[in-house]
Structures are given as C-alpha cells and as structure tokens.
Design goal:
Helix content: 25-40%
Largest sheet: 2 strands, antiparallel
Radius of gyration: 50 Å
Number of strands: 8
C-alpha cells in the first residue's frame, strides 16, 4: 500500500509540474509600467520591442506580450470593489480616462416641427396613449388603430345620412375620400416640415398657377390644354379666327418591317457616310500638287538653280487641278544659257 500511495503522489507531482510549465504565473514584471484604463478595458505597453525575439518567432512573441498585458489588466480589475449579486461576482468599473475616437459623427438632433415648437412655447407635454381602448358597443378592449380597431371601416356596414346632406350621396365613398384627404394633408405637412428644416421656400396648400407673360408660353399652354383630352384635341371646338396650330414636338418615324433591298442598302450607305464624315477628309488634289512642287524644288536644288519668282502653283478658279502659271518673256530676250528664242 505504501508503494502504491508513493507512486500516486509522484504522478500528481509530475502532473503539477507539467501544468505549471504550461500555465504561467499571474505576476508580470515590466521595465516600464504599463498604462491601464479599466474603464475601457485598455492597456498600453510603452516598453520597447525585442527585435531579436520578434524576428525569430513573430507569432509566439506577440502572443506572449498580449498575454502579459492582459494579465496586468485583470490583476488591476480584481483590485477594484467587488460585490455579489445572485451568486454572481460583479466588479464596479470606474469611468474611462482615455478618449477613444468615434467611428461615425455625432448624430444631429432633428429640427422641431411647427407643432413641437408650439407645444414647447405653450408648455404642452406629450402623453403616451394606451395601445387599446374600451369599446362600449362590443364591451371589450380593442386596438386604438389598425385592424379590429374602433374606427375600422369594415365594421361600418351601415352609415347614417346627415340631415343637411344629399340623400342620394354615397356616404361610404365620402368617408373613404375624407380619409384620403387626411392622409394627403399629413404627408404635405411632413414634407413642409422637411423643407422648412432645409430652409427652402415653402409653397402654400394647393398648386399656384404660373403667370404666363410671353406669347410662346401662352400658345404652348393652350395647345397642351387642348391635347389633354381623350381624343388628343381632335374634337375640340375652334375659335372663329383661330389659326391652325402646328405640330408640337417631333413625330416618331418607324421603318417598315418588310422593306425593299434598295432602301435598306441606301440606309446602310447613309450610316457609313455619316460615320466617315467624322474622320478627317483628305484633299487628293492638294496632296498631289504639293508632291509635284516638292519634286520640282528637289530637281532645282540638284541642278543648283534658284527658284524663279514667276513659277508658282496656283489653283485655277472653277477647276479642281492646280496648273503651274508661267510668266511670258518678251520676244528677243535671251535665256539663261545665252540662246535667243
């Protein structure tokens, strides 16, 4: 039995030694104190990096430094006041001392609407309404709005006709129309609040007619009003001295589905010509005349002659070819070689 117990103790000691080698101690020493901010759970290590160890094994070195700094942070956290709530240990973390930058800018507060401004001046406080209200007819709590509410349109299977209303008027249609007008009014007020917040010009309710002062604007407005009918102004009455209005806008043209081959060839030729117009055009006549002139100048330079002032290439009027103009000499004159003509 003694040998067995001694063997067990030796095994436990070996396992403990191995565990101590794997687990490092909680005491960490640094040459320069690490700056700790428990409020942000932040630790800043100002110690210089050992370049030799870093180059030998980068991953192991970074893990070792991160482990030591984290251990120092947790040591500092366990020094803070601790309390137990429902068998859970809680630590009272102090306020942060390091100002960390925000990822996004601070959100701006929405501008006040007209009602919010009025309620602020008058001291009106908004009270939160309950989700359900009591319905006396059904003797139960129903939603304040939405499906199954007190004002649900499906519940009104009969409506009372007011005394001052038309007895043949559809009250159901009138109720739906009034609801649409209320929704449109709320949407208009919402858009007006947005425009006021952006300091834009706010129009009044309804569409104001535009004042037309110029004659073309008036004629265009009359033509648009006439063509706004179902027949596009075909059966509209005309004034006694009214001039026929011209066609407003461009009329679209469509090519026939089964056309002639000659027409198709001409269309393709027109497309190619339009594409070639965009390229720079070459004046063949001018290029040929320039080549002739350069050839003549080169031949004169080889013979040692000077360019005569009378010989020049001018483009004759009404012709496409440029002919050299030769100045006539007087009779009896001598040539350059001394021979008379």
């Amino acid at each position: 039995m003694a040998s067995n117990s001694q063997h067990v103790v030796e095994n436990v000691l070996k396992q403990t030694a191995l565990l101590e080698k794997k687990l490092k101690t909680t005491e960490v020493t640094k040459d320069i104190d690490v700056e700790l901010d428990p409020g942000n759970l932040l630790s800043v290590d100002p110690n210089p990096i050992n370049v030799k160890e870093f180059r030998q094994n980068r991953e192991a070195f970074l893990k070792s430094v991160a482990r030591d700094n984290t251990q120092l942070l947790f040591n500092n956290i366990w020094k803070l006041p601790v309390e137990r709530v429902d068998e859970v240990i809680l630590v009272q973390i102090p306020d942060a001392t390091t100002n960390l930058p925000r990822e996004k800018h601070v959100p701006k507060s929405n501008p006040l609407t007209r009602w919010e401004q009025y309620s602020k001046v008058k001291g009106i406080h908004k009270r939160k309404k309950s989700r359900k209200v009591w319905d006396e007819e059904e003797k139960k709590w129903v939603p304040r709005w939405g499906y199954g509410s007190k004002n649900d349109e499906e519940k009104d299977w009969v409506l009372e006709v007011p005394a001052n209303a038309d007895p043949y008027e559809d009250q159901f249609m009138k109720k739906r129309k009034d609801k649409k007008e209320r929704v449109a009014k709320n949407e208009f007020q919402r858009l007006r609040n947005i425009a006021r917040a952006q300091k834009l010009k706010i129009p009044g309710q309804g569409v104001k007619p535009k004042t037309l002062t110029k004659k073309p604007e008036v004629s265009m407005a009359i033509q648009a009003a006439k063509q706004s009918t179902a027949s596009i102004g075909k059966f509209e009455r005309k004034l006694p001295k009214e001039k026929p209005t011209r066609q407003m806008g461009k009329k679209r043209k469509f090519d026939p589905v089964c056309g002639n081959m000659a027409d198709e060839r001409s269309r393709e030729t027109a497309i190619l010509n339009s594409m070639n117009r965009k390229k720079p055009q070459i004046d063949v006549t001018k290029a040929v005349n320039k080549e002739i002139q350069e050839d003549q100048d080169y031949q004169r330079a080889q013979k040692g002659e000077r360019k005569k002032p009378g010989r020049s290439t001018k483009k004759a009027k009404g012709s496409k070819k440029a002919l050299p103009t030769v100045k006539k000499r007087k009779s009896g004159g001598k040539s350059k070689k001394g021979k008379s003509r």
